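Homework help board

Subject: predicted structure for assignment chain

Our instructor gave us this sequence and asked us to write out the predicted structure in token form, then describe one feature. I got the tokens but I'm not sure how to describe them. Can anyone check?
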Amino acid sequence: MKTKTPNHIKTHPSKPKAILVGVSMPSSPSAEISLEELAGLATTAQYNPVATLTQRLTDINPKTFVGSGKVEEIRLAVKHHSPEAVIFDEELSPRQNRELENIFKCRVMDRPWVILEIFSDHARTREAKTQVELAKMKYALPRLTGMWGHLSRQRGGIGMKDVGETQIQLDRRMIRNEIHKLEKKLVQIDKEKKTQRKNRSGTYKVALVGYTNAGKSSLMNCLTGADTLVEDKLFATLDATVRKIKKNFPYPVLLSDTVGLINKLPHDLVASFKSTLDEVRDANLLIHVVDLSHPEYIEQMRTADDLLREMSADDIDIVIAFNKVDSLPDIEILDRALHAFPSSVGISCQTGQGIDSLRQQIIYHYEKKLAPYRLELDHSQAILVQEIRKVALILKEDYNPDGIVLSLRLSLEAKAKLESILKRSLKTASE
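My token output:
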């Protein structure tokens, strides 16, 4: 007799099961933390990790990545759990991917592909969707034999000079054409973004950077009063969000929340996210947000620093914001971190601790870039003072019988804007 599910109880489809495989290499001896991160990635990608296997490796097997004994152990685990996928914590070559799928008789993925899946799920804007699609296509192209080898067949026809193309060759050609289209589309998007950034050229720009899930979006909300999406998920933020800092702030400053960084980030993804990462390169100041409560926060900082170097953004002024200090088991952890990194501040986006100190750091770096400037105006130009206030810091206003004398501090970009304001005023007066 069949039992019916009551109408008020909603049934949810179960997540596909996955077995996780990690390795310890001489260059990275500990696989535990990396595997924990992989489990977080798999969960974010809507997989249910049901088993974890690890192996210490000195040499990578060119055919199966791990040794034959470990391959057999994974095969038995696959037979027992019947997962939809086996996910490796390292990047697999196309050959390794193909060999392992033949042995396990299920889908085999690596960390870069899982990251690409997450980015694909979280992409919202036209730009992010195009960037992720391009990275996926570039990643899939050399792996076509492994992924769709069963489609291979000859295609020939009357009047054709050669025997014809295999399905794999046709698929490759199709993907190359798609890559070309996406690259052209991104060039156009990049032009649009450059125009947007040019319009903001006179404003001081601060970019939040750091490891994924460090709390960048929470800090964005603290500093701007915005309602940026905050989730306890890896890569919750993909698109660069730009907001004005308004709360308790004396200057016009734009803050951008950028995509989270992570260890073993696919290179094609870094390359295709060029225009998003240009928000980082064009910044006047970087705030490196670090989850101080994470046991491997030093390693996460190193990964972020390496990626910033890869982006040619390592010469920009930087302030380290050690976040989640309210979750620390011992306050000495914060004391040690602040001592080790002098240009740092401890904060908590949950309690607001240290946020004012961070604001003062931004103000300090902003004012450090300003140069003194003296400006004389006629009384007829008094209307310009409000406009000048938007691009420069007015320290003093002297109104005397001969005119108005302003003592300013301003940046090089703002100086160009100021000269433009004055030229426009003179042109209007002469007409």
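Reply (TA_rk): Your tokens look well-formed. For the description, you could write something like this. The first helix runs from residue 32 to 44. That's the kind of observation they're looking for.
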